[in-house]
Amino acid sequence: MRKTLIAANALFAVIVAGAIAIPGAALAGPTTYDLSIFLGAPDPFAAAFYGATPGTILAAPPVAPAPFARAPIAPGPVTPRPVAPVAAIAAAAPAVVPIKSPVVTVPETQSTVRRVAGLALDRAYLVGNVGFVSASDATNSGTGVNNKWIFDSGLMVQAAYGYRWQERATTEVEVAWRSVGAKTVTESGGAAIKATGDVSVMSVLANVTYEFPNGYQVTPYALGGLGFARYTAASVTAPGSSTVKSNDWVIGYQFGAGLIYPLGDRWALDVSYRYFATTQPELKNAAGLAFKTDVANHNLLMGARYKL
């Protein structure tokens, strides 16, 4: 059995050795023939078949490299590129436009007073009017005095400073002066007697106005005001009647309506009607008798507004 196993191994070694040897011979290069790893014992056929002991490397003859020849490259002619003159380059370049940087002015810090004044002027306006005054009859009553004064038509002037708090609402401080002449004095139960002298009223009122929006250039507005007035009777007298030269401070008030027509960015035409009245002033005649009188009149005004 052992002999059979050895013979089988030897046959297998011969087959493998032949398979290896033939490619090795064809390669003509160094090859190691060692079949001991397959036989489990030294290879007894290596020297007999190949003439080399196990582990011997068969060296192949050296191969010399083939010479490499490179033909020299002749340099070609170099044509210089034309260079444009500096003046021509400068002429062809686009003109440089200087850029002007805007000068930014930093506003100085404003005081509270200046800010308030600027706000007031931004929405403020001035009004100046002249007008026609029609005074109502004045009934005078007191101890020993009972008569009626009738007046001629008179004139008035008015000026105001206004401020627009909202788009349609404004407030005004108004100073006005009205004057009418005495026409007649009628004693109780008597006839009217021609009179001389005049009566004037100087008033300072705070007004509130409201403008009504519409699709026309003319803007209507309503007005109401309240304040103080100084009533003065300057030598009102008539035959048979005691002369009155006296004055008194009273509360004055007015209400009315008007129209504003713009004449430009700042100027506007102002036309208005105002009913003006006061509480009853207390006067004294030349005899020293005190009495109270009525004050009421109708005013038609025309003037201008100027927006600050």
Topology:
Blueprint: H1 2-27, H2 36-39, H3 46-50, H4 86-92, H5 112-122, E1 124-135, E2 138-142, E3 145-151, E4 154-164, E5 169-187, E6 192-194, E7 196-211, E8 219-238, E9 241-262, E10 267-278, E11 282-284, E12 290-292, E13 296-307
Antiparallel strand pairs: 1-4, 1-13, 2-3, 2-12, 3-5, 4-5, 5-6, 5-7, 7-8, 8-9, 9-10, 10-13, 11-12
Report the count of strand segments: 13
Q: Describe the sheet with the most strands.
A: 8 strands, antiparallel, barrel
CATH architecture of the largest domain: Beta Barrel
Strand content: over 45%
Describe this structure in words.
It is a single chain. Helix content is 17%, strand content 47%. It has 308 residues and is of the alpha+beta class. The chain has 2 domains: 2-50; 119-307, Porin (Beta Barrel), CATH 2.40.160.20. A hairpin with a 2-residue loop joins strand 8 and strand 9. The longest helix is centred in the N-terminal third of the chain and has 26 residues, at 2-27. The termini are far apart.
Key phrases:
single chain; 308 residues; alpha+beta; 2 domains; eight-stranded antiparallel barrel; rod-shaped
Summarize the structure.
The chain has 308 residues and is of the alpha+beta class. It has 2 domains: 2-50; 119-307, Porin, CATH 2.40.160. The protein is built from 5 helices and 13 strands.
